[in-house]
Amino acid sequence: MTAISKVPSNPNISANIAYLMITINVLLWSISVIIGKGVHEEIPLIGLNFWRWVFGVIFLAPFVWKEISQNTILIKKYWKIYMFQGIFMVGGAALLFTSLYFTSAINASLVNTTQPAITAFLAWIILKDRLKNIQYLGIFFAIFGVIFMIVKADLDTLLNVDINVGDFIVVLAIVSYSMYAVNLRK
What CA–CA distances, in Å, run from 106 to 4, 47, 100, 112, 129? Predict the structure, then answer.
């Protein structure tokens, strides 16, 4: 067993605290989309995305440096997985921020709500996860809902493939984030 797999779980943390932390995470993500859309004319969003990750690394490094130094052999062994995970996460964020030049923050947020369904769909394809019928139904409605929203309930838009490029870029960002989630098992 490696030090990474010995992460202790804290039985004192209740499910309510876990749900609160997830909610705060989604709230912060939403705020970053709104800020990105609000400043996209003054600040290049790729630059904003870059600095967001740089400050994240600077802030988190003191908390994880010890574990990183203790696991250098393991990190060298699996460097390709770490590299692809970085590409999926940072690339997804770059795609998301790029999409804000072409679509609204509301559309980006609505399309993002399909991430759990897309993650389940990709896990089914890549990892051969078994899904329940209700999950297939959820995936269908999530994808149908995004298509419905992107074409603005106009069948002519879908038939003429007159889709906002920003909404399509958000979908690519969500696929990238979902690939990150699927690869976490590795």
Answer: 38, 22, 10, 10, 31
| 186 residues of the chain, pLDDT tens digit each | 444 445 456 666 677 887 788 778 778 877 888 888 888 888 888 888 888 889 989 999 999 999 999 999 999 999 999 999 999 999 999 999 899 889 888 878 777 778 888 888 888 889 888 878 887 888 788 777 777 776 666 666 555 655 678 888 988 999 999 999 899 876
3-state class of 54 per DSSP? Answer: helix
**And the tokens for 185?**
């098992």
Give the C-alpha separation, 3 to 22, whole Å: 25
State phi, psi for 12 to the nearest 5 degrees: -80, -15
Question: How far is the C-alpha of 107 from the C-alpha of 173, rounded, in Å?
Answer: 13
Query: Taking the model in full, what pTM does it have?
Result: 0.73
Give the C-alpha separation, 98 to 147, whole Å: 20
Question: Taking a C-beta distance cutoff of 8 angstroms, is the pair 65, 16 a contact?
Answer: no
Contact of 170 with 103, CB cutoff 8 Å: yes
Q: What's the DSSP call for residue 13?
A: S
